[in-house]
Specification:
Blueprint: E1 14-18, E2 21-25, H1 36-51, H2 53-60, H3 64-76, H4 83-98, H5 117-129, H6 138-150, H7 169-172, E3 178-179, E4 197-202, E5 205-210, H8 218-231, H9 237-252, H10 255-267, E6 273-281, E7 292-300, H11 302-313, H12 315-320, E8 337-348, E9 357-360, H13 364-370, E10 373-377, H14 378-387, H15 391-396, H16 400-426, H17 439-443, H18 447-462, H19 466-470, H20 479-496, H21 510-525, E11 529-534, E12 537-542, H22 545-565, H23 568-578, H24 584-597, E13 602-606, E14 609-614, E15 620-626, H25 631-646
Parallel strand pairs: 2-13, 3-4, 8-10
Antiparallel strand pairs: 1-2, 4-5, 6-7, 7-8, 9-10, 11-12, 14-15
Bound molecules: zinc ion (ZN).
Length: 647
């Protein structure tokens, strides 16, 4: 592979830094070559994605939208605000937008606004003089919002899966999925809407507020439905069927309609443009039940899709060789649809902080009967890679060889591993029938991290397999080098990621727990990773590729057994021992190293912007794409689109 200098090397990916966050522009070059019909389809789905954005704000905290309104009103009328105060409000607001509220999406902990209440009151007064309108007197507004804005100990953690001191996980979690509810309230409670409701305990009675038309989030959901209906005439028959099923589910909220939608969504496999829109991932709920709202609109990246489909076409080959007990192998891996996509927009739980790969639906029963759809987000991965600073690799790599390998191969190895994680990882394996298709229920707060570990381990285990060269996904001569690069990077990242957890000594985020668990387990149980020190700096050094691979296989067998049998005690033990806790001294060292180099901890993405040209009758005649390259501008534009819904 040579180095290709193209348009992507000259344009701007990294836009700005806010504390330890990088703000990066996503590009969607293929959009302009889509047929007009697909562009118009994407346009309506794009509006549907923006229409539900405020739902996720509200799910993350009951005061999120009030705080956002306040901050945005000040920023839109900032002329007379004290410059020092304004700078801090800008910093805080950018982090607030990127994280959809004041909780760091990696640590789940709250960050605060570093001005005084009086300074904020003065900023509100200055904004009001410049024309900002507030619905309530500043004093009352500040009384309501001050604890959230200024007090780090008030509602300190959005999702607390291990609060300790015998605290209840629902009470310890600041999110808005439960109101005055404890785990004990759920004993014997008949929860009909596990995924799509908020549980509220009013006057001693537990009530499910269902997310649907006529229920919670009625106005937002109606707006989403309106745009989905506008999209129907431009959708293929199969996509239209899927969108209609989604609309029906939004109307009724009933589980049977959610199942019908999931089946229709998985069944649609040929549309060039597609969307995810709804209550999907359950990471925010400490119980792992309630779905966080998200939306993604994307089109298929044909070139990269071919590579993934090659992998998918051989899924059965991998399944038959999974290093776990044969009774946990699927005799027939069904319907894996794997595509590389370019996102046009991501909102809610999937933006501005965006995943790199997605495999849905999460309903295990549907996955086993109908398969799943798996997508790798090519243009997000590209933006991430292009914005990564080279110091990242050199600071934490033991040798110059390791740096060279990473520079040459890490993007390639990362993409291949992500594809394997999604296509043959998540899609693999069978669970015991006694779990009734829901290992989540048995594994509770351990489930998500365990499942991520399972998918990672499948990828790590098969990466050196000669099958990959046989089917043309790597060249035979480069494979050893690529495997080494990926294993080195995997081990190295277990240290590097500690920079993200600046407080406490435990890890909350499931993907991070997964990586800690795997690397620490390998350190404890194999001779593949050496911990070395040089000039007071710690390094995780890959010493034996073979031992790493064998260890990954052994651990994978156990992780699959735990999932398949719903062995909660074993899952908890595995993560408590290797995944949750870390040495704060090592973290402090890593933080000092990245601070010295000013390296970011995570990335928030600025999305492309679509605009429609309309004729005299209001019909859309063309859709254009552009790149705002400005987080603030984009966030204020988005807010303007949904503000009308809440008044
Ligand atoms: Zn995953």
């Amino acid at each position: 592979m040579g180095i290709v200098l193209g348009v992507s090397d000259t344009r701007q990916y990294l836009l700005e830094r806010v504390d330890d966050t990088a703000v990066v522009q996503v590009y969607a070059d293929g959009f302009t070559t889509l047929p007009l019909r697909d562009k118009i389809l994407a346009w309506h789905l794009y509006l549907a994605a923006l229409a539900g954005r405020d739902i996720y704000y509200d799910q993350r905290h009951a005061l999120n939208l009030d705080i956002r309104d306040l901050l945005e009103a000040i920023l839109r009328h900032a002329q007379q605000v004290e410059p020092v105060v304004l700078a801090e409000i800008r910093r805080y607001t950018k982090l607030f937008w990127i994280n959809t509220g004041p909780f760091n999406n990696l640590t789940a902990r709250k960050f605060v606004l570093k001005v005084t209440r009086d300074q904020l009151a003065a900023a509100i007064a200055a904004a009001a003089r410049a024309g900002a309108r507030f619905d309530e007197p500043a004093d009352r507004l500040l009384d309501r919002l001050a604890p959230m804005l200024f007090d780090p100990s008030y509602d300190a953690v959005v999702t607390s899966k291990n609060p300790g001191h015998g605290r209840d996980i629902l009470e310890a979690s600041a999110n808005n999925l439960y109101v005055d509810v404890r785990m004990s309230d759920l004993d014997g409670f008949d929860e009909r809407y596990g995924l799509n409701s908020r549980l509220v305990k009013g006057d001693g009675r537990l009530v499910e507020e269902v997310y649907k038309v006529g229920g919670k989030y009625d106005r937002d959901i109606r707006a989403i439905i309106g745009h989905l209906e506008d999209a129907l005439p431009y959708a293929s028959a199969a996509l239209a069927a899927s969108l209609r099923a989604l609309i029906r589910f939004y109307r009724t909220g009933e589980k049977a309609d959610r199942v019908a939608y999931d089946i229709a969504w998985v069944g649609e496999q040929s549309s060039q443009v597609d969307t995810i829109n709804g209550f999907v991932e359950v990471y925010m709920d400490p119980r792992g039940m309630k779905g966080a709202w998200e939306a993604i609109v994307y089109y298929v990246n044909e070139e990269k899709t071919q590579k993934i489909q090659t992998l998918a076409a051989h899924a059965q080959w991998f399944e038959d060789r999974m290093p776990w007990e044969p009774r946990f192998r699927k005799p027939q891996v069904l319907g894996i649809t794997a595509r590389a996509i370019d996102v046009v927009v991501e909102t809610g739980d999937s933006g501005p902080v965006a995943p790199l790969g997605i495999n849905l639906p999460n309903d295990q029963a549907i996955r086993e009967r109908y398969g799943s759809k798996s997508v790798s987000l090519s243009n997000v991965g590209e933006a991430y890679d292009k914005s990564t600073l080279p110091e990242f690799r050199s600071e934490f790599a033991w040798s110059p060889d390791e740096v060279d390998r990473a520079t040459k191969w890490s993007a390639f190895a990362g993409e291949l591993t992500t594809n394997m994680h999604e296509v043959i990882g998540h899609a693999s394996g069978k669970v015991d029938e006694k779990l009734k298709g829901s290992p989540q229920a048995a594994l509770k707060e351990q489930f998500s991290a365990l499942e991520e570990a399972r998918a990672d381990l499948v990828a790590l285990y098969f990466l050196p397999d000669q099958k990959l060269a046989e089917i043309g996904l790597v060249s035979k001569t480069d494979q050893d080098e690529i495997v080494r690069t990926e294993y080195e990077g995997y081990a190295r990242n277990a240290i590097v990621q500690l920079r993200r957890v600046r407080q406490g000594t435990t890890i909350a985020e499931d993907h991070m727990r997964n990586r800690q668990m795997i690397v620490n387990w390998l350190k404890a149980n194999t001779k593949s990773i050496d911990v070395r020190s040089r000039d007071g700096k710690t390094y995780y050094v890959l010493t034996d590729v073979r031992a790493f691979r064998d260890g990954a296989g052994r651990l994978l067998a156990e992780v699959q057994r735990i999932k398949a049998e719903g062995d909660y005690a074993a899952a908890k033990q595995l993560f408590e021992t290797h995944g949750v806790h870390f040495d704060p001294m090592l973290r402090d060292e890593v933080v000092a190293r990245v601070e010295k180099l000013q390296l970011p901890s995570y990335t928030g993405f600025v999305m492309p912007k679509l605009e429609a040209a309309k004729d005299g009758s209001g019909a859309v005649t063309d859709v254009t794409i552009s790149y705002p390259q400005d987080l603030t501008k984009q966030m204020l534009e988005y807010a303007a689109l949904t503000r009308g819904l809440r008044r």
